[in-house]
Specification:
The chain folds into two domains: about 5-160, Mannitol-specific EII, Chain A, CATH 3.40.930.10; about 165-285, no CATH class. It is globular, with a radius of gyration of 18 Å. The protein is of the alpha/beta class and about 290 residues long. It has eleven helices and nine strands. The two termini are about 30 Å apart. Strands 1, 2, 3, 4, 5 and 6 form a six-stranded mixed beta sheet that branches. The model is unreliable at about 1-10 and about 180-185 (pLDDT under 50).
Length: about 290
């Protein structure tokens, strides 16, 4: 593993997992189901997976349970697909908006349809967390909505995600230096850092070369995480890794126990706190 590939993995450059020919700048559909079908078939057509049925069944079943419209005009439908080698994403832009039954009840304008193998759960968490936090900023979303071509959308996503984590790290450092600001810290920052830390630890386990660079990166990330959160993370990684997992269809992907729907909804609507599964105590990320 060379320094360049390490940098890309650490910073979660979104376009590593998005091809230009998997971006639809003017997705013409009448409803959510048609949007999901078109984007899933696009990944299949571009040879990102061997079949459509497994992925589409999971994606639609997930949407029936609860919408993946996460607010701010963004939706992140997703499926874990056997046989895939790496995460792949198709992007559909709907200028006029589409009713997706999103959590904020507003139309969805950008759909990031994500398929990934079970071995890349942490990569998926990094990807979704980056999309969610990056595009919560109106200026980033507006740049994508006004881009003219798939190439332009690709370039914007690449440039914005390359610089995003550097700014996020600086913001976390500023929050740590100012106790008053620290009280208002956004839990998304901690979740992103934990996802990156978990990914780097997985990389260290699998790496044959470059372990020194990965260890330095791990120490840097650890220095940015709250000691209380880091302590619980370390205990989880020692006793029952992974420490950070997603919640899909109200089910914790760490212990595979179903969580109360009301609790999951509260977690989704509370960006100021980081939450744990009520069954296994793992940190959870709800989309």
């Amino acid at each position: 593993m060379n320094a360049a590939s390490l940098k890309v993995n650490e910073e979660m450059v979104l376009t590593k997992y998005i091809q230009k020919n998997c971006i639809v700048p003017d997705l013409r559909v009448d409803n959510k189901a048609d949007a999901l079908k078109e984007l899933t078939h696009l990944l299949f057509d571009k040879k990102k997976m061997k079949g459509v049925s497994q992925a589409l069944d999971q994606i639609i079943a997930r949407e029936v349970t609860e919408s993946t419209g996460i607010g701010h005009g963004i939706a992140v439908p997703h499926a874990r697909v056997t046989g895939m080698k790496t995460l792949a994403c198709a992007v559909g832009r709907i200028p006029e908006g589409l009713d997706f039954m999103a959590v904020d009840r507003k139309p969805v304008h950008l759909i990031f349809l994500i398929c990934y193998p079970s071995t890349e759960q942490t990569t998926y968490l990094n990807f979704v967390a980056t999309v969610a936090r990056l595009l919560r900023k109106p200026e980033h979303l507006q740049r994508i909505m006004t881009a003219a071509t798939p190439d332009d959308i690709f370039d914007i996503l690449e440039a914005d995600s390359e610089t995003f984590h550097e700014r996020a790290e600086q913001q976390v450092q500023d929050l740590k230096a100012d106790p008053d600001l620290g009280k208002m810290r956004d839990a998304h920052a901690d979740l992103i850092l934990l996802a990156r830390l978990q990914l780097c630890q997985e990389m260290l386990t699998n790496a044959k070369t470059g372990k020194g660079d990965i260890k330095q990166r791990i120490e840097k990330i650890r220095s940015l995480v709250s000691p209380r959160i880091l302590g619980h993370y370390d205990r989880l990684m020692k006793s029952r890794p992974p420490a950070l997992v997603s919640v899909e269809g109200d089910t914790c992907q760490g212990c595979f126990m179903r969580l109360p729907s009301k609790f999951v909804q509260q977690v989704r609507q509370d960006p100021e706190h980081i939450h744990t599964c009520t069954n296994c105590s793992r940190y959870i990320y709800v989309v």
